[in-house]
Amino acid sequence: MINLKELEVWFITGTQHLYGEETLNVVSRHAREVAQSINGSAGIPVSIVFKDIVKTPEEIFATLQEANVAANCIGVITWMHTFSPAKMWIRGLNILSKPLLHLHTQFNRDIPWDSIDMDFMNQNQSAHGDREFGFIMSRMRKDRKVVVGHWQDPEVIAQVGIWSRAAAAWHDWQGAKFVRFGDNMRYVAVTDGDKVEAEMKFGFSVNTYGIGDLVEVINGVSREDADSLVGEYEELYHMDTSLRRGGPRHASIYEAARIELGLRKFLEAGNFKGFTDTFEDLHGMVQLPGIAAQRLMAAGYGFAGEGDWKTVALVRACKVMGSGLAGANSFMEDYTYHLDPQNPMVLGSHMLEVDAALADGKASLEVHPLGIGGKSDPARLVFNVKGGPALNAALIDMGNRFRLLVNEVEAIDAVYDLPRLPVARVLWRPLPDMKTGCAAWIYAGGAHHTAYSQNLTNAHLQDFANISGIEYVRIGAETRIDQFRNELQWNELFYR
Quick check: 360 and 384 in contact, CB under 8 A? Predict the structure, then answer.
């Protein structure tokens, strides 16, 4: 998985020559201390890099231009320690292509009541310096994240950390490649979409490869490599004796290992960050990839079934945002409902492919008939998913825009054995309640495929949508259908 500490957010402090060399030296020293302190905070997953204070339009332009082309720079944090006349920033902001966080802070937390004088006031002008900067950003219609509070405040650090994770996911999308084996599942609407518009908007590309291209790589997998991976399966998962080496049903496990190795090799050779397949196009394959998709997701790849490339990209983005956090992110589907009025729940699953990293305990590697696809019985990991706060997110092509829809949910620890359902599964209750949550999702055109996250919050996804410049719609604890429908109608007018 991506190491977020290799990515940089540049800390840029604005001021001007008006104040003299002595004051500017203090401003520079303060800015360096703030940047280094934030960088050392446990809640910051990336590297915060101090940059020399900027005092002129030329210095501002040069610094932001450098940020644009720096390969590891994923965004900038700006702070106006003193008053920095905002017309100086226009050229630089016009060419800035990286996400921006405006930190509205000041070096001192408290006013030094007994000693404050005009020298102190001239040196600590963030209260109106940042307002000047905020005006020019609004005047230029530049989207940004605004975080307010002292730079040592844990809430401020948390907000900067969340935004930096969103910026890292956006950076990861730029130039990313996702592969589609076969086409979209026939006649399905929501999983399809405009791949050209997506590449212009998001920076990633989606291209289709024939299933034969993958089969050729799978057929080149050596017996030694496949046997080695089977040994890993036997060590990591519960397996019936009949599936182990020497057992009468071992061929299915051996074939699943060949598929995983072939898929991994194909993805690595093409520098792909995720993939999708469909059970309607498996020509030349013995079985549909089950455990292969589950384990590749656990390794950091995006995945979705049935040609759903938008969810592939979103799962990958969630994995980048959640890197290093407890919990996992997976392809998911709202599969069926438990409509008991006293205990309503959604059963989330898919035919085979739920991220192995979601397993609550040791998973079971099993082989069962699939019922669709017309291929041999596929191998898959069967497990329950732990309860707790979570969310489902869908990236939807609305025709004139992309919409990111998020429903916060409460996952529930498994209370039923489900002995005849041989798939990975999770139970949850949508917020604010089953009827409202499901109705709101349908009013918003939400997809049946989602990215399911145990470690991200509404704040991560909202920052990501803002950086992406797309519509963001949230279903949460306070959602009311009448207000929610009004929001959707207002959005239609805004985006028209």
Answer: yes
Euclidean distance between CA atoms 443 and 445, whole angstroms: 6
Q: Which position has the token pair 């019922």?
A: 371
Give start and end residues of each alpha helix (H) in 174-222.
195-202, 211-219
CB 313 within 8 A of CB 176: yes
* Residues whose CB is less than 8 angstroms from the CB of residue 96 and which lie 6 or more positions away in sequence, other chains included: 64, 67, 68, 76, 142
The verdict on pTM exceeding 0.90 is: yes
Q: Name the nearest CA neighbour of 424 among 490, 330, 352.
A: 352
**Where is average pLDDT lowest: 2-6, 34-38, 457-461, 473-477?**
2-6
SS3 content of the chain, % helix, strand, coil (to 5): 40, 25, 35
Tens of pLDDT, residues 35-93: 999 999 999 999 999 999 999 999 999 999 999 999 999 999 999 999 999 999 999 99
Residue 458 scores a pLDDT above 70: yes
CB atoms within 10 A of CB 337: 12
Cβ(301)–Cβ(274) below 8 Å = yes
Q: How many of the other CB atoms lie within 10 Å of CB of 32? A: 16
Residue ranges of E strands in 149-279: 177-181, 205-209, 238-239, 274-277
